UniProtKB/TrEMBL annotation:
InterPro entries: AAA+_ATPase (IPR003593), ABC_transporter-like_ATP-bd (IPR003439), ABC_Transporter_VariousFunc (IPR051782), P-loop_NTPase (IPR027417). SUPFAM superfamilies: P-loop containing nucleoside triphosphate hydrolases. The keyword Transmembrane does not apply. This is 3-dehydroquinate dehydratase. Residues 2-233 form the ABC transporter domain. Keywords: ATP-binding, Nucleotide-binding, Transport. Pfam families: ABC_tran.
Length: 241
């Protein structure tokens, strides 16, 4: 569970990049975070993951405050950033072992997890190669694998499907559903609205730092009294702003 309570972030003390956001991501749900470029999505994710601190408010991961107890809070989640271009001189297996070391995953346990993830993403033959030789999609897959190495309860994914081939994208969406079916939570940002429409249990739409809507697609259609797609409702909502 992720609890975002009255969170704002100001960089210049005159206007808020994120303005009084108050949403809860429940156990057992895939929660989509939608918004145009510059809407406040990445700033919000950076606050949830403890990369930056909120100007006001608090964020709790499974009841642990990211501001008051950051190390314990960070053990609760996996984070996949929007760019997979990191640690490029490491080999795939070195990167996965590094991530396992960060999260204190026991040697025997990590080996099984690496084999399971490598097989699922068809990466077995690439683990001995350097990340800098990988395609963008392969880098995206290895970063996802590294994030999941400690089997965290909460997944926080920033545009996770970008660059993935159709098969890998399908596998990741399948894994997201398996994860929430076991009572855990997935929070992911995306600009691909048809993916959000098919995958998410609930969505929040942010624009200019404010949450314009939070709920299910059915609730949004009821709110608009329409049978339009999520894409049409999203465009209407953000353009009106």
């Amino acid at each position: 569970m992720i609890e975002i309570k009255n969170v704002s972030k100001s960089y210049n003390k005159t206007s808020n990049a994120v303005d009084n956001v108050d949403i809860t991501i429940n156990d057992g749900e895939i929660f989509g975070f939608l918004g145009p470029n510059g809407a406040g999505k990445t700033t919000t994710i950076k606050m949830i993951t403890g990369i930056i601190s909120p100007t006001q408010g608090d964020i709790k991961i499974n009841g642990v405050s990211i501001t008051e107890n950051p190390l314990e809070a960070k053990k609760q989640f996996a984070y996949v950033p929007d760019s997979p271009d990191m640690f490029l001189r490491l080999k795939g297996i070195e990167y996965l072992n590094f991530m396992a070391d960060v999260y204190n995953v026991p040697k025997n346990q990590r080996q099984n997890k690496i084999e399971e993830l490598a097989k699922r993403f068809d990466m077995q033959s690439a683990l001995s190669d350097q990340l800098q030789s990988y395609s963008h999609g392969m880098r995206q897959k290895i970063v996802v694998m590294g994030a999941l190495i400690h089997d965290p309860e909460v997944w926080i994914l920033d545009e996770p499907l970008t660059g993935l081939d159709p098969k890998s994208a399908f596998i990741l969406k399948e894994m997201m559903r398996e994860h929430t079916n076991s009572g855990k939570s997935v929070f992911f940002s995306t600009h691909v609205l048809d993916v959000a429409e098919k995958v998410c249990d609930r969505v929040a739409i942010i624009n200019k730092g404010k949450i314009l809507f939070c709920g299910t697609l059915a609730e949004m259609k009821e709110h608009f009294k329409t049978n339009e797609s999520l894409e049409q409702m999203f465009l209407e909502m953000t353009e009106n702003e």
